[in-house]
Automatic annotation (TrEMBL):
The lineage of its organism: Bacteria, Pseudomonadati, Pseudomonadota, Betaproteobacteria, Burkholderiales. This is 3-isopropylmalate dehydratase large subunit. Keywords: 4Fe-4S, Amino-acid biosynthesis, Branched-chain amino acid biosynthesis, Iron, Iron-sulfur, Leucine biosynthesis, Lyase, Metal-binding. The gene is leuC1. Residues 9-461 form the Aconitase/3-isopropylmalate dehydratase large subunit alpha/beta/alpha domain. It catalyses: (2R,3S)-3-isopropylmalate = (2S)-2-isopropylmalate.
Amino acid sequence: MPGMTLYDKLVASHEVARVDHEHILLYVDLHIMNEYTSPQAFSGLAARGRQALRPGQQMAVVDHIIPTHPVPAALRVIADEASSRQARNLKRHCDAQGIALFDTTDPLQGIEHVIAPEHGMILPGMVVLCGDSHTTTYGALGALGFGIGTSEVEHILATQTLVYRVARNMRIRVDGHLPPGVSAKDLVIYVVHRIGAQGARGHAVEYCGSAIDGLSAEARMTLCNMTVEAGARAALIAPDATTDAYVAARARHLDASELAQARTYWATLHSDADAVFDAEHVFDATQIAPFVTWGTSPDQAVPVTGAVPDPRGEPDALARLALEKAVEYIGLQAGAPIAGVAIDRVFIGSCTNGRIEDLRVVADVVRGRKVAGGVRAMVVPGSGAVRAQAEAEGIAATLIEAGFEWRQPGCSMCLAMNDDVLRPGERCASTTNRNFEGRQGRAGRTHLMSPAMAAAAALAGRIVDVRDLEQTQ
C-alpha cells in the first residue's frame, strides 16, 4: 500500500466519521469569522436556540467593510450604516457566544489571514476554516486551511465539525533559486498562469523543491494564499526549520514541554517517500521573471517583458471569446507591451501582500524617491501589529516621505466592500489576489503584481520592470 501524502495525514488525523466513499465528518481546530459571511450563520444558530459548541476555538474579526482612513485606531468609525450594522451584529453575537473578536477600534485589528498567524493561532497539523476563500494561506505553516460557505459556518459553530468532500492530491515542485527582483508573488502568478485558473480544481496542492525551501514563512503565505486562484481546494508546505522558527516565536501559549511535544508531531507532517499524487507539475525557479496580469483572471498574466496576447491566436472559440472580452475590459491593445502601461492608482496591502516583509521591500524600492505626479498610491498594512512594527522600523516614515498614503489596516481596496475603491476607468497596480471585472470598483482595471513591482509602478507612473529601476540607483 502506498504511503500517505501530507494532505492525507492531515485529513486522517481529523476524521471523526466516514460519511460515504467521498465524504467524511472533519474536526475543526480553529474557525475564523468575519463580518460579512457570519450573520446568517449566527441567525440560524439563534433560531434553533443553540450556542457555539466550543467558543474558545472560534475567532472573529471586522476586516472587509472597515474604512482604512489614517485616524487613530480608537477613533475608527464605520460611517456606512449597512456596514456599521454588520460590524455591530458581529460584536453582539460574539459577546453573546463568548467568542474573541478583533473589533473596529481594536489596535490589533486587521485582516483575518494576517492576524491569525502573527498571534500564534496557527500551528502545523491544524485544520483551520473560515468563510473566505483565501484561508489556504495557512498551508504555509503546514496547516490544512480552506474557505467555507455560510451554512457551513453555522454547522461548525454548532458542532465544531464539517461534512467534507476529500480532495485529490497534486504536487508542485519548484527547484532552483528565484532570480533577483523575483518574489513569491511572481512565483504564484507564474504557477497560476502555467496551470490555468482551473488547473488545480478539486486538488489539494503540496509545494516542494529547493525554491520553496528557500522562501520565508511570510513568502510561503503569499504562495499558498493565491493558489486558490488556480482552483485549488487547499495549499500545503511541509513544516521545516523555517516553519518552526516562525511558529515558536509566536505560539507563546505553549510552554517548553508542550512545544517539545508539538515539534515531535510536526516532524511527522510530510508526505511519505512512496506517496502517490494524482497530478504533478515541475517548474524551474531560475526561469521566472516578475509577472503582471493583463486581463480579468489571475491566470491572464505575462512577464513584465511580455505583451498582451492576441485573441486571434487562440484556436478554441470559447477561449478566444474570453480573451477578447478581457482585452476589451482592461482597455489594452492586443500585442502591446505590458511595460509602459500608465496607471492611476497603486494599492499595496491585502491578505496576500500586507505583511511586514512586504512593506520592507516596498520601502527599499522607494527610499529617497517620489511617487509620480498624478498617481494616488496607498499602503494598507495587514494588521495593527504590522502597522506598529512598520512605524517602529521607520518604514512608515519612508513611505510617507515618498508620497504614499499610510492607512489603517483592513482588506481595503482588495475588493469593493468599503470606501477604498477605483473609479470607473481607473487603472491600478495592485498587490491583491484577484483582478476580476469590478473587483476593486465598478469598471476599475486591475493589474496584479508583487509589492516591489507595485512600488516601482508608483514611482514611474506606469508598469515597469523593477529590475531596471534598481539598476538606476
